[in-house]
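Contributing new records

If you add data, match the layout below exactly. Sequence lines come first and carry their own label; structure lines follow with theirs. Keep one chain per record. Anything else will be rejected by the validation script.
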Amino acid sequence: MSNNRIVTSPSERVQALSDSFKDVLSLGQRYVDLLDQLAQTKDAKNLLSATNKLAKMDLANAFIDFPPHYKAADYYLIFMDRLLKMHGDTAVNVAENELNHEFEATVAAIGSEAVFKFEVDSRGEAAFTEQSQHEPLFYLSLEDKLMQFNNRALVNYFIVYALKQHTDLELRDAVKPLIDFAKYLQKDLDFTIDLGILATSNDRRFMLDKPELPLTVIDRLFVATADEDYMLMNLPRNNGAELLLDQGTKLDIAFDPDDYSQEWAFLVKDSDEQISFFDVLLHYDLVREWYLANRSALAVRTDHMEIVDEEPPAMTEVVEDESSDEPSSAEPSEDPAPNEEE
């Protein structure tokens, strides 16, 4: 019987209470079983299933108050922690805040001052968000099996903010477990992931948010390299420029002359395909200063995957956004989704 039906007689009230207890006992048992599965399973698929069910479970009851329990954001963070630990990755530490009983994450490479939590929206999409600057570093949908980094937030937090407190090597180590988490999602659970500017494939093009680029912006880079050991050269087909960095690394700012749209993009090339555009911004002062000074023209678009709420079969749609940078994976999947700026 529905616990929401209005009952008036004593017998109906007693029966309603009895039914409510039965419902609660059944729900409580399911809840306990899922908590056990979340805490104990060694199988990634079972871990995902338990997290999804717990995040969507409604423990509200008209007659019975459940004891304090965790929220969807907590289950997401526990899921991340357990998946990392399944691979022996201990760089991220997840613990319960004793004051508010919410789970928080810290990353060993940058200490305990930087605190991260998931913030979950009404559709179940979670943003892994640094709490002091409120930058959503990546988006995660367990139900739709999507994971995407936010380019704008990566630059805002690590390149603009955190680099003032930490070395480039510390920040490189801080980002690594986040990249590894994405790869585990893809390998173990068939997630579609987008590493965004963390991608390292040589053929990955980091499209600019604005399709046209004033040539004066490239001229400023020529001027900046005048007193440096790096060489900037025009590309053979006059479609951009190539900056020769150390150890054989090259950074191109160019458009495809064979593409009628001629949209500008960054490309990073190195022999081992281990260097991302994020790495270039992190390690090379010359590029970082030029990029940030001209960010309105050079901001990298975020091709982000967005979940479409429609009656027909659920599907993933790429949507263009002008202000939120999101993921794209270099190693894993590189299919771009929609747009945003970094």
